[in-house]
Recover the amino acids of this structure.
């Protein structure tokens, strides 16, 4: 079982590398980079629920069916993980303004990845990790350092989403440069927040499963952040370039 899971992690890590390379040639066509080539458009609100809810639901099933349902350390990791996906699956879609669309192809790809990721994270936390793995977990620094990073990342992610959401007044269809918060340093502050979340989660879980998910997050979001910055440069010219923002990670990338 453990050897099979190790192979699964390796395959997932290699797939992330393929995605990272591919996204430098093919932009993920949703949101600001919407592209009809990825399939029939559906309402953004429906798309986000369909795309994100599978991981929340499957993670709940894995948790409830395990023998570690009430163990403190796995339960803490479960709560951290589900806090993000509850917000992303059921709250974030309700906050979306306007009538924007998302290609069905992007939704289906997101559903597949999220299902695999639930198996990866839930599989490790509740089934694959050794029986004594979480003994004295709260005497170690992982959960505290990782949990703090996760919470900071989630706050940045939510705050950045709020800034983007309030760029336009009702009926306005123009594009604007996001300002304030971590947008002072990067053009994709919401992605930075999400990357920070899963970096913290990887530390809190102290697992290769968490590390592979962090790598997936970077592989998916970093090329998209680069594409977004190019779009901003093309659309706003010197007004944007003079801000000297990085793509996703302050002062680094």
């Amino acid at each position: 079982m453990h050897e099979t899971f190790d192979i699964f992690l390796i395959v997932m890590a290699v797939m992330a590398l393929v995605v990272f390379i591919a996204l430098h040639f093919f932009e993920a066509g949703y949101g600001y980079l919407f592209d009809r080539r990825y399939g029939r458009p559906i309402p953004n609100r429906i798309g986000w629920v369909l795309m994100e809810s599978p991981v929340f639901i499957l993670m709940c099933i894995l948790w409830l069916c395990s023998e570690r349902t009430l163990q403190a350390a796995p339960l803490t990791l479960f709560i951290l993980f589900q806090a993000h996906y509850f917000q992303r699956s059921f709250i974030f879609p309700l906050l979306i303004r306007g009538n924007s669309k998302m290609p069905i192809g992007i939704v289906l790809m997101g559903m597949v990845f999220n299902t695999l990721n639930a198996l990866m994270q839930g599989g490790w936390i509740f089934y694959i990790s050794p029986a004594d793995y979480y003994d004295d977990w709260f005497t170690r620094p992982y959960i505290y350092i990782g949990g703090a990073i996760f919470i900071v990342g989630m706050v940045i992610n939510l705050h950045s989403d709020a800034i983007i959401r309030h760029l336009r007044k009702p009926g306005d269809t123009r594009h604007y440069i996001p300002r304030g918060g971590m947008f002072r340093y990067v053009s994709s502050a919401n992605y930075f927040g999400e990357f920070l979340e899963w970096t913290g989660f990887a530390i809190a879980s102290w697992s290769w499963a968490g590390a592979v998910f962090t790598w997936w997050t970077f592989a998916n979001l970093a090329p998209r952040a680069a594409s977004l910055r190019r779009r901003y440069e093309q659309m706003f010219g010197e007004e944007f370039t003079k801000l000297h923002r990085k793509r996703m990670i302050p002062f680094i990338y």
Remarks:
- Residues 3 and 128 are 10 Å apart (CA to CA).
- Residues 208-236 form the longest helix (29 residues).
- The first strand starts at residue 41 and ends at 43.
- The two ends are 38 Å apart (CA to CA).
